Amino acid sequence: MENKIITLPIKSYSEQLIGTLIVPSIAEVMRHKLDTEATLSVNLLDSFQDRGKYYEGFYNLIKDNNIKLDNVWIDSKNKEELKECIYNLIQKGYIQERKKEIKKCKCSKVEINSDILENKKQGKLYTKIGENLVCNECHSILETSIKNVLIFKVPEKIGENIKIIPSRLQKSLVNMNKYMENKEIVISRNRNTGISVDYNHTKYNIDVDFFWANYLDLIKSKEKLVIGCEEVLYPIYLTSILERIRNPKSDTVYLAVPFVKGLEKDIMDYNNLKSKEAKKLALIFSATKLKNSKSKWEDNIYKYFSKFNDSKMRDFKNVLYGKIDRKEDESFYDYVDRVVLQEMNYQKVLKKFNQREVVR
Question: How far apart are CA 173 and CA 159, in angstroms?
């Protein structure tokens, strides 16, 4: 197949979150509009908790909301293939052994090389209090030690011109690449991550997020559309550069949809909303307002579609899900960009539907 749709790996949680439906819902629509295959990617590997026991609940949430994709890719079921990707990076010299100064907390949630610490008061897992960095989980001060580790050195220029929609995110990726290129990212961990490789007869535990970030190498397709959430730009960046190392002419396009505010707090009865199709459409259109980094649940859209009878709902979905042909000589990026911005815009889709209704 010339092109495929793949979600960025989605974590499963003990409590099923409505927000995890956003990316699969968009992937389903794009599957129809591009008339291609779509894969749901799932992240179950975790060195702190067993996410595997939550997978069934997550998958049932997808199924109960009538989201249909072609297949599922799970990182825990592809460990050997992903490990080969790591050894391939070692053979090519991108992963090497170094002696580094490491800052680590007592619970091991934070384990980071000192020379790549972000120059800000707060990171995802730590906070700067006075002169100390403190773990947000166990609240211990990060202690410094010198040890042998495995590092991944980010090549120069490889992160330039990552193809992303919406285009306003391009600047963020350019700035991220300026900061990251030539940096040495520590990818081994002192704790047991469940994934280890041998380097010069020494066993190293590999960071889980770096491990699965190689997954695009296992998806064989000339062109790929990877769909994720705008809040995870770093994994988008990392998966992109890891793929470009092996395929410098990569035609992969990323679609980053905004976080939809209000899904968990304001409409906690989402699962009890009567019309499954109406709430899925409201979720899709809430997440395709790409001009802003954050969107909100559009209850008025849900109420509008909830009044549709089965026939009218089927007709509308035929418009929304209808195949869009690719123009001659149109690049994959331009094709996807046109489909997302023009053919998934709520007002434009609604106008096209109403025009069909008038003709009928």
Answer: 8
Domain ranges of the chain: 3-76+214-359, 79-161+178-211
> How far is residue 293's CA from residue 178's CA, in Å, rounded to a whole number?
22
For the stretch 151-168, pLDDT in tens is 999 999 888 889 999 999
Placement of tokens 């053979």 in the chain? 91
DSSP structure string for 111-127: EEEGGG--SSSB-SSEE
Residue 171 makes CB contacts below 8 A (sequence gap 6+) with none
Please determine, looking at this structure, whether the domain spanning 3-76+214-359 carries the CATH number 3.40.190.10: no
Mean pLDDT over residues 205-220, rounded?
95
Task: For residue 258, give the DSSP letter.
Answer: P
- Structural tokens at position 333: 């990026």
Backbone angles phi, psi at 192, to 5 degrees: -80, 110
Q: Exposed, middle or buried: residue 53 (CB in 10 Å: 0-12, 13-18, 19+)?
A: exposed
Q: Give CA separation, 337 vs 219, 327, 341, in Å.
A: 22, 12, 6
Distance between CA atoms of residues 150 and 93, nearest Å:
11
Give the DSSP H or E segment for 36: none
Per-residue model confidence (pLDDT) at position 122:
45
Q: Which pLDDT tens digit goes with each residue over 121-144? A: 446 788 889 888 899 989 999 988
Q: Considering the entire predicted model, what is its pTM?
A: 0.91
